[in-house]
């Protein structure tokens, strides 16, 4: 029995202290996913907390089967969609100060995020799940409810678009 299955079994037996362990185990992954899909760190924290609140509220319905990770991502997807319908609080400034360690990584991530946000919504979510959250293609299919081949096709198409955009930017940079 996996650690996750063991925790779920104990939770179902009303050992709710194990629920805290389960949340702690998945919080970082869900938070990072929400960070990709929201406009600020605070909104991402709110989305992650809302995801777990909804999980706790409905966990006894057993609609997740034994695939708790996919179930949590499905909740997070819906929470982020709901949050995206709200008007944005504020936008990121064009130039961020380079005062913290890891700034270059953050800059590359921001560039990648900019490229991803130019993709159609259906492709954005798949790219973030696959590469931002390091999920398998099968898990992406499970979370989105799409057939495996559709996920593969959309990811391939998204990566081609990103590659073309990177090449286009490279040509523009050389001409300056």
Automatic annotation (TrEMBL):
Query: Per its UniProt record, what Pfam families does this chain match?
Result: Sigma70_r2, Sigma70_r4_2
Q: Which InterPro entries match?
A: RNA_pol_sigma-70-like (IPR039425), RNA_pol_sigma-70_dom (IPR014284), RNA_pol_sigma70_r2 (IPR007627), RNA_pol_sigma70_r4_t2 (IPR013249), RNA_pol_sigma_r2 (IPR013325), RNA_pol_sigma_r3/r4-like (IPR013324), WH-like_DNA-bd_sf (IPR036388)
Top-level taxonomic group: Bacteria
Q: Name one GO biological process term.
A: DNA-templated transcription initiation
Domain RNA polymerase sigma-70 region intervals: 22-83
The segment(s) forming the RNA polymerase sigma factor 70 region 4 type domain are 112-162
GO molecular-function term, one example from the UniProt record: DNA binding
Keyword Endoplasmic reticulum present in the record's keywords: the answer is no
Q: Which CDD domains match?
A: Sigma70_r4
Keyword set for this entry?
A: DNA-binding, Sigma factor, Transcription, Transcription regulation
Q: SUPFAM superfamilies under this entry?
A: Sigma2 domain of RNA polymerase sigma factors, Sigma3 and sigma4 domains of RNA polymerase sigma factors
What family does the database annotate?
Belongs to the sigma-70 factor family. ECF subfamily.
What protein does this entry describe?
RNA polymerase sigma factor
Source organism of this protein record: Hominibacterium faecale
